[in-house]
Amino acid sequence: MFLHLGNGRSVNTENVIAIMDIEKASTSRITRDYLNRAGKSGWVSYCSFDMPKSFVVTLDRDLTERVYISSISPQTLKKRFEEAVLGKENLEEKICFT
């Protein structure tokens, strides 16, 4: 399954390590350093020229790390991820019983 990140960019859900709120995560010096290092290493892809709201970290099968900056909210990406992985029916059951 794939997770749509905006502007036609999608990633395989099997490769997703983290979906982060860029505003909240950027308050941490460690996260800022990580994003700076990722940018300098060429790991970062921008999915939109709009105001960034989230970033998604992936690890490909060949162990290539990537960071995707998206203008889609982390809450929306999380919901899309859960729907893709669990399926809409299973997600509704999970929400009802947990």
TrEMBL record:
InterPro entries: RemA-like. This is DUF370 domain-containing protein. The lineage of its organism: Bacteria, Bacillati, Bacillota, Clostridia, Eubacteriales.
